[in-house]
Amino acid sequence: MAGTIVFVLAALAAFVSALVVVAHRNPVYSVMSLIVTLLSLAVLFVQLAGHFLAVLLILVYAGAILVLFLFVIMLLNVGTDRRGLAGTRLQRWGAIVGAVLFAAILASLQWGATLDAAPPTEDEVALTPLARALFGDYLLPFEMAGLLLLAAVVAATVIARRTTPEERESR
Amino acid sequence: MTTGLWLTAAEMGLWIAFLLQVTPVMVWIERRGSALIQDRLGPNRVGPLGLFQSLADALKFIYKEDIVPAVADRSLYLLAPLLALVPSLTTFVVLPFGPDIEIGGETYKLMVVEAETGILLFLALASLGVYSLVMAGYASNNKFSLLGSIRASSQMISYELALGISAITVLLPVGSLRLDEVVLAQQGTWFGFLPQWNLFPQALGFLVFMVAAFAETNRLPFDLPEAESELVAGYHTEYSAMRFALFFMGEYMSMATLSALAATLFLGGWHLPGVSFTYGPWLNALVGFGILAAKILAILLFFVWVRWSFPRFRFDQLLRLGWKVLLPLAILNFVLVGALTVAGVL
Q: Checking DSSP bridges between strand B106-108 and strand B189-190, what pairing results, if any?
């Protein structure tokens, strides 16, 4: 019973804050509500016995990546978006495609595919089995993902450091 | 079951009472300590040795006018100081402060939450502390505040890496994320007198951890987010009365919880050679907490000593130190300790 109440509260918080993320005109508020979304998702993870995943979600996303988001937004001094929900043409088409996909998922859940609804057991999401899977069975994909991220970081640095001809002459 | 619940409540009460007392006591130590270092007297008028000065200051904070600037982002402005207390009032749950105690045939651990993720939970909750500063700086709508909070966010992200890596290096020989097992691994002595604390085999890690802790808590020599000669008061320039006091308390309480983590990881936590914990369950718990509190206080005194001994860094020096010196040192320490652990030396 208590579990259900916690679930409903966390799910509601996640849903509402996710709506605020896309709907609010001020990007700083969007990032702030994204933090609330992540914290509520962490609560849901804990309910599924995924303590480690919940902590990672807070440590990596809420604690590090979103600080960078906020940092960039404040540094660029992005003002409040006056257009509000109307958005650009691209955003409108994106919203339509997203809505269709969401409806398709709902419909397939309702009438088509059956979902294995059993929550993962404690043994499947505990620290040791997760670590064994990550650094054992899936070691190669894990290391490749790391290389890919490193390549992306190096590429971003190269693009950001590209000097204009005037700058080169002044050196 | 109910005994466990009451025990948890008592443990939380003990921690919160301790953390709330840290601020006034530390303010007194800071002011008298700085006076000692600078050959002055310091506040000595209110009460014996000026001990009641903090109490008078607290009363003053309550009665001062609480000002919200007209151009401030009101809701974020009011929320930010409350969030300053969140990291310090949540992270203590994973810190052990005594041996297992037995009450009515049941064994209980002296920590609030027995989480498998242990130290990761501490680091995750501590990493949320930066939002309070960023929110305050943004909501104040003032360039000094904004500059302060931009500095705070880049500084805390840079030093979190070195802090985290030097902290997890301690876990390698232990083989567990749980801090109670980290403390148990530090029991006993070498050569009969030297306590088996991680401080000695991991001196490099302790050095990196402490330097990063200074940066994480925005203490001098790394107090760039509130550098008064450049930014008035940084992110809390616009705050007054109790809201300013909350930032103040948050800073001292984060220092206390980080010192508690340092004591647990490197200084043996509640362990002290010669104390055997045979005083019955309740006294055991109090003695354990007393030993941990004494170690926390010792590290806090070190914080004060450093603050009044060093000048402030420049911001580029601060970032260079974090990324080009501390992070490589932390990784080197990690590789060294890892190799020694695999070789079976540690």
A: unpaired
Instruction: Indicate the pLDDT class of residue A159, thresholds 50, 70 and 90.
Output: confident
Q: Is the pLDDT of residue A37 over 90?
A: yes
- DSSP states along B47-95: SGGGTTHHHHHHHHHHHS-----TTS-HHHHHHHHHHTTHHHHHHGGG-
Residue B101, SS3 per DSSP: strand
Quick one: tokens of A9?
């509260």
| pLDDT band, very low/low/confident/very high, at A78 (cuts 50, 70, 90) | low
In tens, the pLDDT along B285-303 reads: 888 888 889 999 999 999 9
How many CA atoms are closer than 13 Å to the CA of B192, on its beta-carbon side?
0
Contact A116, A38 (CB under 8 A): no
Question: Given this model, what pLDDT does residue A116 score?
Answer: 63
What is the per-residue pLDDT for A38? 92
In the structure encoding, which two tokens stand for residue B155, read together?
Answer: 């500084």
Question: Does A35 sit within 8 Å of B156, measured CB to CB?
Answer: no
Q: Helix (H, G, I), strand (E, B), or coil: what is residue B194?
A: strand
With CB atoms and an 8 Å threshold, state whether A64 touches B153.
no
Name the token pair of A17. Answer: 């804050």
**pLDDT at residue A16, as a whole number:** 93
Residues of A in contact with B138 (CB under 8 A): 28, 74
Tens digits of residue pLDDT in B232-273: 777 888 888 888 888 888 889 989 999 999 999 888 888 887
Say yes or no for a CB contact (<8 Å) between A67 and B157: yes
pLDDT given at position B317: 86
Question: From B121, which residue of chain A is nearest by alpha-carbon distance?
Answer: A55
| Interface contact flag, B124 A63, Cβ < 8 Å | yes
Q: Tens digits of per-residue pLDDT, A99-150?
A: 999 999 888 877 766 666 666 676 777 788 888 888 888 999 999 999 999 9
For A128, counting Cβ atoms within 10 Å of its Cβ (0-12 exposed, 13-18 middle, 19+ buried), the class is exposed
Strands (E), B142-185: none
Partners of A126 on chain B (C-beta within 8 Å) are 116
Q: Do A67 and B130 touch (CB under 8 A)?
A: yes
CA distance B60 to chain A (A): 33
Residues 6+ apart with CB under 8 A from A17: A33, A34, A36, A37, A40
Residue among B117, B122, B132, B146 with most chain A CBs within 10 A, to mutate? B117
